[in-house]
Amino acid sequence: MALLKVDRLRVEFPTRHRTLVAVDDVSLSIDAGEVLGVVGESGAGKSVTGAAIIGLIEPPGRIAGGEICFAGRRIDCLPDDAKRRIRGREIGSVFQDPLTSLNPLFTVGQQLVETILTHSDRSAADARRHALRLLGDVGIPAPAQRIDAYPHEFSGGMRQRVVIALAICATPRLIIADEPTTALDVSIQSQIIALLKRLCREHGTAIMLITHDMGVIAETADRVAVMYAGRIVEVGRVRQILRSPNHPYTRGLMESIPRLDSDSARLAQIDGTMPRLHEIPVGCAFHPRCPDASDRCRENRPALRMVDDPAAVACLLFDDGRADG
Amino acid sequence: MADTTEALVEIRDLAKTFDVSKPWLARLLEGIPVQALKAVDGVAFSIRRGETFSLVGESGCGKSSVARMVVGLDRPTRGSVVFDGTNLAALRRRADIAPLRRRMQMIFQDPYASLNPRWRVTDVVAEPLDAFGLVGSRSERTEKVADMLQQVGLSPDDGRKYPHEFSGGQRQRISIARALAANPDFVVCDEPTSALDVSVQAQILNLMKDLQQRFGLTYLFISHDLSVVNHVSSRIGVMYLGRLCEVAAASDLFRHPQHPYSRLLLDTIPDVAMAGRARAPVPGEVPDPIDPPPGCAFHPRCPFAGERCLQERPEPAQYGHSTVACHAVEERRIPPFSRSNPGR
Ligand SMILES: Nc1ncnc2c1ncn2[C@@H]1O[C@H](COP(=O)(O)OP(=O)(O)OP(=O)(O)O)[C@@H](O)[C@H]1O
Ligand SMILES: Nc1ncnc2c1ncn2[C@@H]1O[C@H](COP(=O)(O)OP(=O)(O)OP(=O)(O)O)[C@@H](O)[C@H]1O
Ligand code: SF4
Ligand SMILES: [Mg+2]
Ligand SMILES: [Mg+2]
Questions:
Q1: ipTM score here?
Q2: Which of helix, strand or coil describes residue A149?
Q3: Residue B60: which of A98, A157, A239 has the nearest Cβ?
Q4: CA dihedral of residues B176, A269, A156, B250 (deg, nearest 10)
Q5: Taking a C-beta distance cutoff of 8 angstroms, is the pair B270, A218 a contact?
Q6: Is the preceding omega at residue B300 within 30 degrees of 0, hence cis?
Q7: Min CA distance, B133 vs chain A (Å)?
């Protein structure tokens, strides 16, 4: 049974003039020990989906539909204090913005020890030892020398790693990691990836890994969900998504990756921009940018359909269950 | 190409030391001495007009520290930054600094922290315009901001919103719009696209390239993503633990890296086509910057380290068109480079 099951999630942000739908009819599941990669255009709703799962949508934003079940229990309608108990202990999170998760007034060590003490019954001395070990695990050189430094004394990538240490310090069953390695070079990335994989293997931790870094996806994810304009447009095993993506958006995404062997002065790009939330077109939201769009696409919104389990795609080219384009 | 070889920015023996000592009482009780962290130690390079110079290196090696000193946000502990013939350290009066400030802009590594949460996006983007009195009328201001927002793929309507209403990548684009609003000559980009998905990243990098061609912009570019760096740079400086180990043209560095660290770094470039296969991280631990290894700081991880490397620090020297600081290179002990990661 899936550890996390999100069913038809809808998240709205009411504004003065209109209500923006940032996440629309999103369903996904993650098994224990599995890594689900989530990729997609900037503004597609990846972070909002993650925030909804950990119960951190700031009002006036709200979950306007759907269900989120964690370990067989519905968690989207729990009272705030119950949500807070789940956060940190059972569901750890790494936010996209490392500075918002760190308090500038306390040292890195104080923040780690405090979090460890809240979620376990270790002694203070033991918590500090654990904190030191975690800092070493995320690749901070000479942790004993640096543990009493303040966040501003760390480099961007070091701060990001402290946030990762905070997220895993209670060994949660699910980690929502939002761009956890964006500021990190490949060596440190490999170390972090190895650490996350070890958690999956040894503790059955499930991970929702939101990232635009296809290298990280290639190495870490078991399955990948691709989002566009608030919806999931494609899901599949990592190899299939990277090597033979079905959805035209995913295909464009893969072609935009800068490659070492290419000498062209410009990168391939998907022309145009993703529609803003208040002007999502009828039909397929991608049709204005889609090289394969036909009249049908301007009228009918494609639903996410299974093409070859677990591969599913929301595109009218595949609407009858097989590719015709 | 005579005019392109002229240096716009000249960095000489730049150093930044941070005092990272424990509080004095703890020092007294535990008997530990004052500790200094040399974030940057003797870095020198020049950036030619109209080129993109990139700094690469592992997290914590001092890239952002260099960047902050180059635009005058931090004072160097030692050394100097000369911008278009003017030594920044010699400028004391605000009135002297202001015109240079307009010409140099920075895109920060942490876009969230650099956007004032209480300002509407219009005011954020217009900040440099207002600060330097670059727009006359209100309508001119609105028009300019709308134009900048469109350039980075946002819409003019977005100006009315607050930063928290945007996604991570959208916020990064706001900070890019702000940096470019004042028509600077020189832009320091600290991980400008690290929060962007690849398709938006491609758009932003193409935009930066277009602006460079149209206005002769000069960039100092920092990124951990070597394939991006390869794509945008004319020349590249490879940093390790606060020092430069190699400065070379992008094509030279990617084809014939000379310094052992550059070679290992190039081997780490992931290949998307090989799902599930591990990349080759630079082996060994990143050393402690407070207590760096003696001699060549890279020696504990270096496959070519010899006796001399343990004691004597290698100084940068010229080899062909590249500058390299390595004893083994000087002693010609290093075999020609071949990428150990096949399949590319
Ligand atoms: N508090 C908010 N108020 C209004 N709109 C919001 C708010 N938070 C997010 N949004 C909007 O919701 C959409 C989805 O945002 P989200 O942060 O989930 O994007 P994302 O997929 O994580 O993108 P990125 O890759 O850029 O981080 C965006 O269009 C954003 O502008
Ligand atoms: N204000 C400060 N006080 C003390 N140490 C600092 C300060 N700022 C930076 N450092 C230290 O200087 C070193 C270099 O930091 P810097 O931010 O320049 O690294 P970086 O190369 O930009 O790394 P990243 O890729 O992670 O952003 C790090 O060890 C960092 O901890
Ligand atoms: S100086 Fe010696 S240790 Fe340093 S990089 Fe060169 S060979 Fe390696
Ligand atoms: Mg996001
Ligand atoms: Mg930095």
A1: 0.83
A2: coil
A3: A157
A4: -100
A5: yes
A6: no
A7: 32
Whether the per-residue pLDDT at B343 is higher than 60: the answer is no
Instruction: Answer whether B59 sits within 8 Å of A155, measured CB to CB.
Output: yes
Residue B34 in contact with residue B27, Cβ under 8 Å?
A: yes
Across the range A293-318, mean pLDDT stands at: 92
| E-state strands within B88-151 | 104-107
Pick from A141, A154, A254: CB nearest B287: A141
Domain ranges of chain A: 4-90+174-180+210-258+267-318
Q: Is A245 an 8 Å CB contact of chain B?
A: no
Which chain A residues are within 8 Å of B286, Cβ to Cβ?
139, 141, 187-188
CA distance A321 to B190: 46
How far apart CA A213 and CA A210 sit, in angstroms, is 9
Q: Say which of B59, B194, B279 has its CB closest to residue A219.
A: B279
Q: Which token pair is B124?
A: 């954020």
Q: Which CATH number goes with the domain that contains B110?
A: 3.40.50.300
Residues in the 5 Å CB sphere of ion ligand 4: A 47, 96; B 167-168
Domain assignment present for residue B337? The answer is no
A13 Cβ under 8 Å from any chain B Cβ: yes
Asked if the structure places residue B301 within a domain, the reply is: no
pLDDT band for B270, please (50, 70, 90 cuts): low
How crowded is residue B339: how many other Cβ atoms within 10 Å of its Cβ?
Answer: 16
C-alpha A133, offset from chain centre: 26
Domain-embedded: residue B310: no
Note down the domain range covering B238: 4-287+319-330
Ligand (nearest to CA of B18): 2
- Asked if A192 and A161 touch (Cβ cutoff 8 Å), the reply is yes
Question: Encoding tokens for residue B191?
Answer: 């991980």
Rounded Cα distance, A269 and B311, in Å? 50
pLDDT digits (tens, 9 = 90+) for A57-114: 989 999 999 999 999 999 998 998 998 889 888 999 988 777 778 999 999 999 999 9
A291 touches chain B (CB under 8 A): no
Q: How far is the CA of B305 from the centre of ligand 3 (A)?
A: 5
Q: Is B337 on the interface with A (CB under 8 A)?
A: no
Distance B298 CA to ligand 3 centre (A): 6
Distance between CA atoms of residues A6 and A61, nearest Å: 18
pLDDT band at B279 (very low <50, low <70, confident <90, very high): low
**Protein residue with its CA nearest to atom 6 in ligand 2:** A153
Domain A4-90+174-180+210-258+267-318 coded CATH 3.40.50.720: no
Domain count of the fold of chain B = 1
Report how far apart, in Å, the C-alpha atoms of B250 and of each of B53, B55, B56, B262 are.
9, 11, 11, 12
d(CA B284, CA B60) in angstroms, rounded, equals: 15
B342 is a domain residue: no
- CA B238, distance to chain mean position in Å, is 10
A1/B203 Cα distance (integer angstroms): 41
